[in-house]
């Protein structure tokens, strides 16, 4: 039989453990996790306004601390036809070689945490266009980035910064052309040209008169090299259809 003294000691131990857990720093992004010693790529839990949320962290590339917000590998997840609420909340499966969209609500919250605009790292591999000389190439684009809230249609703010290294962009006819565009999906189109989302299968994305990039377009477009589906305008010169894509963010407050 447990004595009163033993019971009191047990309760005090439990209280101490609870206090210790509550005193631990709460990670709000992958950079916070990196700072407390989580240095491996993988799935981690962070704290958000909506409660705990699992995210995939890249803790190795370019210093680590990246929260991965988009990833595509083989077209197993249908991005172009996902609806507004799906893009708001996120879809797909987190993992090293899976396909997913982290969700516009989470992306907005992560970019709003930063004193300055976040840094967006875009990594593209290969080109599936027939007879392409770019297949097998790795491209990295670096941008300053944030998106607004749902009430502001997740409008994108994206800029080129020449001080960021390893840019595969020109800052004039690339992803930055989407600056100040609201987000569009097949069921909520804010592009003046609705065929961009539905016929060209570019959405959901920050399109306006289609634009020059959509990394969430149909993986296997009906035509290559003409701005259909998943494509990227490389250095303002030519269209590529990457085999894999990855978008990741971290604060640019250093």
UniProtKB/TrEMBL annotation:
<dbReference type="Pfam" id="PF00147">
    <property type="entry name" value="Fibrinogen_C"/>
</dbReference>
<dbReference type="InterPro" id="IPR050373">
    <property type="entry name" value="Fibrinogen_C-term_domain"/>
</dbReference>
<dbReference type="GO" id="GO:0005615">
    <property type="term" value="C:extracellular space"/>
</dbReference>
<dbReference type="InterPro" id="IPR036056">
    <property type="entry name" value="Fibrinogen-like_C"/>
</dbReference>
<protein>
    <submittedName>
        <fullName>(pine wood nematode) hypothetical protein</fullName>
    </submittedName>
</protein>
<feature type="signal peptide">
    <location>
        <begin position="1"/>
        <end position="23"/>
    </location>
</feature>
<dbReference type="InterPro" id="IPR014716">
    <property type="entry name" value="Fibrinogen_a/b/g_C_1"/>
</dbReference>
<feature type="domain" description="Fibrinogen C-terminal">
    <location>
        <begin position="21"/>
        <end position="253"/>
    </location>
</feature>
<keyword id="KW-0732">Signal</keyword>
<dbReference type="InterPro" id="IPR002181">
    <property type="entry name" value="Fibrinogen_a/b/g_C_dom"/>
</dbReference>
């Amino acid at each position: 039989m447990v004595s009163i003294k033993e019971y009191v000691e047990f309760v005090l131990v439990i209280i101490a453990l609870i206090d210790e857990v509550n005193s631990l720093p709460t990670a709000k992004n992958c950079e916070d996790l990196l700072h407390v010693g989580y240095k491996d790529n993988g799935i981690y839990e962070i704290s958000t306004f909506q409660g705990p949320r699992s995210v995939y962290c890249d803790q190795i590339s370019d210093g680590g601390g990246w929260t991965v917000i988009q990833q595509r590998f083989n077209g197993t997840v249908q991005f172009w036809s996902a609806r507004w609420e799906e893009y708001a909340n996120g879809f797909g499966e987190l993992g090293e070689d899976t396909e997913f969209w982290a969700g516009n609500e989470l992306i907005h919250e992560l970019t709003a945490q930063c004193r300055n605009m976040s840094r967006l790292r875009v990594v593209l591999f290969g080109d599936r266009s027939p007879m392409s000389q770019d297949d097998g190439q790795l491209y990295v684009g670096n941008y300053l980035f944030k998106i607004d809230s749902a009430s502001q249609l997740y409008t994108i703010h994206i800029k080129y910064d020449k001080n960021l290294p390893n840019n595969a962009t020109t800052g004039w006819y690339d992803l930055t052309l989407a600056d100040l565009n609201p987000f569009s999906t097949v069921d909520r189109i804010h592009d003046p040209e609705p065929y961009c989302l539905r016929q060209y299968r570019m959405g959901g994305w920050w399109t306006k008169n289609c634009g020059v990039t959509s990394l969430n377009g149909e993986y296997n477009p009906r035509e290559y090299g003409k701005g259909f589906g998943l494509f990227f305008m490389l250095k303002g010169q030519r269209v590529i259809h990457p085999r894999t894509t990855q978008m990741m963010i971290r604060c640019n407050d250093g």
